[in-house]
Design a protein that fits this description.
The complex is a heterodimer. By secondary structure, chain A is of the alpha/beta class. Chain A is built from six helices and eight strands.
Chain lengths: 264, 203
């Protein structure tokens, strides 16, 4: 086979020993220059950088597998595949719709502190009202029709931090058709970059279920899906625990009364 | 005010202005967006969450999108911004996470620690002593540093990071032919320098 007949990506003169020597001489775990930020890498990919900036990025890419991989992923973005077959499910869509709606209810960023305080108070008052009304309406009205739905939703407000007096338990109704319940935990006073886990503590004080990597949404809420089996009827406490650095700290508790409603 | 029906299929931002619905966009791009974050070193749970955040932002701008052809690039830009914000928020830990091995790096093989190099018995670069190994490494380093930037980058991306010609051409924004040519010339330079050294060593 002549060199012209070779596939374009094949090495016409592989020399593993020379490559090994090159790796030993020049390979290193850390690139010599700091990583460009993702937007700079993207600007490089779209050729929107000045010539000198482009040269800096090229120099970095030559020794940084991490950033080189990112630029190649930009190129092939539309065809990227997760390692496992992970087509979006109905559950993914429903989570997204819920979060979009939750985000629409939050105030726009950039408001003045006074406005934020006002809006915060207003939002809290509205949330309490909405939760109260929802419980009242749900109790008064017939069981909602299970239209393609296997997911129930419960929005919880914190009763207090650890050690404070527990407030009144909030009802979490688990309809007969619900395979799982999405708990939306509101908490406006947390600072990043803490990591959090969410625990469900039974009435005997045992952690009956936990989500080790709870993440805060853009709207400030934590959304976690709990399977029906993990939510037996009774009094429980949902606990939000900060786990980033040092010992875990409970930052909010949400006492709940879980009720499994009977089919009609 | 019109009440939103939460059970409808196309989601909250459906098909306004005749463009794609959020559901269509979500179904088409969920996998690439999820894969994008997984490949940045985020966990499965984190990646799912970041993918959701990306589509929340998509939902806000979808009705203003004028061209469907530009959809992929626009979503990529949003995903890159979400990635950037995440790095900012989790700066220390996530910068460390960025340094985890990628498939490409694993494929290329981790660089060997200096001094542990073995080039096989009887080969052109077979070490007669550790001192000679160190000398060769130093020579190769000097040769690489003396190369022009294009040749050096092509050679390092190919030999050290294990990228293919096409990938290097994409990364450095040059033609595949240029990449091939630089790698060929770079190798020849290194071989010549090493052979000269070997000849000197056996005199």
């Amino acid at each position: 086979m002549t060199s012209d007949q070779r596939p374009p990506d094949r090495d016409p003169e592989p020399d593993p020993r020379l490559d090994e020597l090159l790796r030993a001489a020049h390979g290193g775990p850390t690139p010599p220059t700091p990583h460009p930020s993702p937007d700079v890498l993207l600007a490089y990919h779209t050729r929107s950088l000045a010539a000198d900036e482009e040269e800096e990025v090229r120099e970095h890419l030559a020794t940084c597998a991490t950033c080189a991989r990112a630029v190649l992923d930009f190129e092939d973005f539309a065809d990227l595949e997760p390692p496992e077959d992970r087509a979006p499910t109905e559950l993914d869509r429903r989570r997204l719709w819920r979060r979009i709606e939750a985000a629409e209810r939050t105030p726009a960023p950039g408001a003045s502190p006074a406005t934020v305080r006002w809006l915060g108070a207003l939002a809290a008052a509205l949330l309490v009202t909405v939760v109260g009304l929802s419980v009242w309406v749900i109790r008064l009205q017939p069981e909602p029709s299970p239209v393609r739905s296997e997911l129930a939703l419960a929005t919880l407000v914190p009763a207090g931090t650890a050690g404070t007096v527990r407030g009144q338990a909030q009802s979490v109704l688990v309809p007969p058709w619900a395979e799982s319940v999405v708990l939306v935990l509101s908490h406006g006073g947390l600072e990043r970059p803490d990591r959090y886990r969410i625990e469900l503590v039974d009435d005997a004080g045992r952690v009956a279920w936990s989500e080790p990597e709870a993440r805060r949404g853009e709207d400030g809420t934590f959304t976690v899906e709990v399977e029906r089996a993990a939510l037996p009827p009774g009094e429980h406490t949902v606990r939000l625990v900060a786990v980033d650095g040092g010992s875990p700290t409970t930052v909010a508790e949400y006492p709940v009364r879980v009720e499994h409603t009977a089919p009609r | 005010m019109e009440r939103r029906d939460e059970t409808r299929e196309d989601g909250p931002e459906e098909g306004r202005g005749g463009g794609p619905t959020l559901r269509q966009v979500f179904d088409r791009y969920y996998r690439p967006v999820l894969a994008f974050f997984l490949r940045r070193g985020f966990s499965k749970a984190e990646s799912e969450d970041l993918a959701q955040e990306t589509f929340i932002r998509v939902s806000r701008g979808l009705e203003d999108l004028r061209s469907e052809e530009a959809l992929g690039g626009w979503i990529l830009r949003i995903a890159a911004n979400v990635w950037k914000n995440e790095l900012r928020h989790w700066s220390t830990k996530k910068r460390d996470a960025l340094e985890v091995s990628y498939e490409g790096r694993r494929e290329a093989g981790e660089p060997l620690p200096e001094g542990s190099v073995s080039f096989g018995a009887g080969g052109m670069y077979s070490p007669q002593s550790k001192a000679l190994d160190a000398e060769r490494l130093s020579l190769v380093r000097g040769e690489i540093e003396a190369m022009g930037p294009k040749m050096r980058r092509c050679l390092l991306l190919h030999a050290v990071q294990g990228y293919k010609y096409r990938e290097i051409a994409t990364l450095l924004q040059v033609s595949i032919q240029t990449v091939k040519s630089h790698i060929h010339q770079g190798r020849r330079k290194l071989r010549d320098a090493l052979e000269e050294k070997l000849t000197e060593g056996t005199r």
